[in-house]
Amino acid sequence: MISEQAAALDRAAPGAAPPCPTPRRAHRAPRASRALALALLGAGTAGGVLARADEPPRRAEVAAEPLEPAAARRERDVAYAAFRADFDAGRYSDALPHAERVVALSEALDAAGADLARALNNLGATQYRLGDFIAAEAAYGRALQLVEEQQGASSRRLLAPLQGLGLTYQAAGRHDAAAPLLERALAISRHADGLFNPQQRELLRPLVDSLVALGRWQDADREQLYDFRMSERQYGASDPRLLPALERLADWYSATGRNTQARAAWQRVLAISTDRRNSNLAAALAALRGIAETFRLDYQNGAEIVEENTQRAGQIGFHSDMGERDPFGRRVAPAGGEYRLESQGKDLLEAALKLAERAQPPAPRAVAAVLIDLGDWHLIAERPDRARPYLERAWSLLPDRASPAEGIAHPLGYPVQLLYRAPPAARRFRDQPIALVTEAAVIAEFTVTADGRVRDVQIVEGDASESQAAAFRTALGKAIYRPRFVDGQPVATEKVRLRETFRQMKR
């Protein structure tokens, strides 16, 4: 049985093993029947055990005497121990009836008590892991209501049901419902545990995902930076423990088109990871590859941002005839200008290759990853003859097929898009929330040749206009892919598909 201190945390989010209601020393007791549990609850009441669609009807007609409180507590301890063992081992189907049993006994003992809220959090966590989001929503929602009624709207014990309910909505794609719950939980966490408490990371990262899905780019950016500042405050500006947060920040900048800031973040990673006191080969390789990637993205997207507009009201979604704007309202050079692939990126990858080759013990996967990057670089520079030796050598260093245990596909076993510039019409209004726009889509089917070029483009599905489909076909014809490899050699791949969307503002 877990300690009193662990129970006091009262955190039963989907990603964590939850605490037991009122932990106490476990005693063996005969396990009561399902019918007895229903008798304790009252069959058909709102507080009953949640039914699943794939379960047979439960027998509620069998009469049974309620357990005495002491016996019910012992039985609950036994059920919780069984639940916890199955949950921790990842046996969520086996854990479910035990979680339901703990709910039943907790409600029988005190239908308005804190133990029931904890038990419902446990049940919600299990249902979440099983993908039963409707049932998880009900369990977490009921726990949330109980805690609010018992302790008010700002209690720290609201964190578990708020987080669980928010992640359940997020997993079901309901980001509009998830974001307010995660924001509320974040506010409670900062008020209860301090503005920079590290526990809030469990809330920050899923919140950023939902904010991005909703098109709330500035809010997402604020929370992403908050996450980094929190780590910087916790560890210091040059501590190696800061590296994961710096890498996340660099990836965030790259994902939002701010390659200059991404390069600066990767430079910090490189400086920390190559300090003789903090030598970290993996981080140094990630930094060199990350900086090179920013140069590739510059080539993909055209010119760097040329005008800041961060103080302008309504910057999200602001457009003018002076050029397109990124999700943060900053004007960028119009597409179609001169694109230049900086050779500095290739030089950094060559330095990364030398570093990986000197690793002790040998790191063939790290060497292969950099070789693939170098092959990709030459492919987008339209030099497939130079790319091929790098990719062939990478193939020789990797297993013939990915390990099923790792769940990772072979990186050379399928075509990978390296360069695609969407038509200007497809880039409009991408920063707008989905609720404010209408979308038309088009799907193309094509062949990726052995040298990574796109051929035989055919439009096979979609409701976009003819002009939009034609623009997509033209843009796709200029795309570059890394070809699929078979037995160490690049081969053509037919029937590759790509989907493009075109947005218009609702009237």
Distance between the termini: 60 Å
Q: Note the run of SSEs as H and E.
A: HHHHHHHHHHHHHEEHHHEHEEHEEEE
Structural class, judged by helices and strands?
A: mainly alpha
Per CATH, the class of the domain at 4-210 reads Mainly Alpha
In terms of per-residue confidence, which ranges show pLDDT below 50 for 5 or more consecutive residues? 1-17, 20-64, 304-325, 330-337
Describe the structure in brief.
The protein has 507 residues and is mainly alpha-helical.
Give an overview in words.
By secondary structure, the chain is mostly helical. Among the domains are: 4-210, Alpha Horseshoe (Serine Threonine Protein Phosphatase 5, Tetratricopeptide repeat); 415-507, TonB (TolA/TonB C-terminal domain). It contains 18 helices and nine strands. It has helices at 4-9, 34-41, 69-88, 92-109, 114-129, 133-151, 159-171, 175-193, 201-213, 217-235, 243-255, 259-273, 281-301, 343-357, 364-380, 384-397, 424-427, 466-477; strands at residues 305-307, 331-332, 416-419, 437-448, 454-462, 480-482, 484-486, 489-491, 493-505. It has a three-stranded antiparallel β-sheet. A two-stranded antiparallel sheet has the order 1-2. Helix 9 packs antiparallel against helix 10. The longest helix is centred in the middle third of the chain and has 21 residues, at 281-301. The radius of gyration is 28 Å and the shape is globular.
